[in-house]
Amino acid sequence: MNEKILTIENLTVSFDGFKALNNLNFSLDTGELRVIIGPNGAGKTTFLDIITGKTKPTEGKVFFKGRNLRPYSEHQIAQMGVGRKFQTPRVYLNLTPRENLELACNRNKGVFSTLFVKTPPAERRTVSGLLETIGLPHKADMKANLLSHGEKQWLEIGMLVAQAPDLLLVDEPVAGLTDEETERTGELLLSLAESHSVIVIEHDMEFVRQIAQGQVTVLHQGSVLCEGNFDDVQSDPRVIEVYLGQEIDHDEDASLENIGGLLEPVNAEMN
Amino acid sequence: MTVQAAGGRQGVDWLRRRSLLMEVGIVALVALFLMFIVPLLLSGFRLNLMGRFLALAIAALGIDLIWGFTGLLSLGHGVFFALGGYALAMHMKLQIPATASSQLPEFMDLYGVTELPWFWRPFDSFPFAAIALMLIPGLMAGLLGYLVFRSRIRGVYFSILTQAMTIIFFNFFNGQQKLINGTNGLTGFKTILGATVSDAGTQRSIYLATILLLVAAYAVCRWLTSGRFGRLLMALRDDESRARFTGYNPTGFKVLVFAVSGALAGLAGAMFTLQSGIISPKAMDIAFSIEMVIWVAVGGRATLVGAVLGALVVNFGKSLLSEKFPDFWLFFLGGLFLGVVMFLPDGIVGLIRTQGVEWFRNLTGRSKQLSTYPSLEEDPEAQYERKNIDDRKSDG
After folding, report:
1. Is any Cβ of chain A less than 8 angstroms from the Cβ of B224?
2. Of A74, B206, B257, B295, which has the fewest Cβ atoms less than 10 A away?
């Protein structure tokens, strides 16, 4: 299982001269779970926009399962097997969780098959199973706008899985969740990582520590600053510098753990 | 209590089937009432109005489909309405008795046209006209929709484009004196399918046909808006890019719905023309297209019953007010619309569904209906959030 599911070569994205991503190189093994961190404005969301086809690269190439993604639009890339969860939960509020999941689960997403073909029993079973997994079977048939924030986050993760993608892109899944919900979300993501390739973008260092088994990538000013396991990255002086914006005395016990605390008010504002 | 026990799939299915049967029953009852009881209650003049307004209700269903369910505010449905009206009117204008001195519609003689223009010829056949009156507006809407939706034009820009379309069509039809009698439009219809149009019996049959077509249109809209397809339409309305990232290409769905909506407007135009006896470029007036949207807003967006009800209520209100207060009935009408927008964001049907149900339950001494479960219903935070989400929804 050492094939690359995602390879990004010399990627540059500029908006009117501002380089949101600058000569970025990145690759992800099939079945890997990768956490991406970085200060605000590091280009994390643009990075996901590029992979999902929302934004096209100015220069450079993105390969998913060996195919260059440039000519494809969002829905085609999604059908190839890239699923994306947004920062703020985006579920269809006027539909029930079951209907949300059934829409995502639909195998053939053409106009006429959606109109004429009834939801097959296999998909119904998948949806029921997923409702159990995300803990919403008792709320399956009420409108999603009545769900709590945490439940919406979970429903959106459920929709992502229902889509049966090979690569999951998860943008700040625990923003605004309680500690307990955060931990359960971490467990859910870890269990998903057993059968999918996953990229998680996150600010919450405690959560990153929980889920980062392998490599962590740090983005800064549109490029990869460093890559390594969580402890190495956490103690890397360059990482500490970009997070605090200045050189600090290395004798002090400065690590990302403290920085994580510093960042929290910023996160709270963003949500 | 609407709380479903875990694994309530079968229960939900059963409830859906029961409510579907009830709906079929109610629709059938209302249709029979309109067909056989209403003609006994109304005078000939009012019955003719009723027939026209029922035709307009078909257009309202189309507007509801594209605006209420899919979230695309079309301000150009008057064009599709007129295209349908013209298609049938052209057929009727060609029903010239063989003994007549000229085998051309009379306005052509007047403007010195000596040969029937090529595009008039196929309309001589009734089956062709009957298909064309829906197919032409449908294809027109589909083509426009494809060009617009493919370029991801949405929201206000879509509405502006549809308005521009009405102006283009209005000016074109207005200017073609020789081809389609320009600003005077087509009128003076004699026969349809061999029957005299102005005959009371024929008008009665047209009235019945309008009701049957309205029921058919309702059934088509109901079919489109229920099930996965309908839920996807609502998903596109609420968050289109989310649907893209789930793997749906919105273009095809929106083109299909817009085309169906245009075809329904065409059908409405044809039935209206039959009963009003005239179709002119005035039907492509921007004001008329906006009025269609108002019917749906008054009745209740995203409820098919609301669209039908809104078309009838607004149009009857309009005709009664204009009789009673010929000088300032327009102010009443304006006031009605302001009132609906400000106090009834979900229209008449929305009001009945929320307040009406509660009022009825209070009256019969039953407890308040819960949409969730008790603890959440009483949670102030949940109530606050729901209110906020509702506020945001009304912005869209």
Report:
1. yes
2. B206
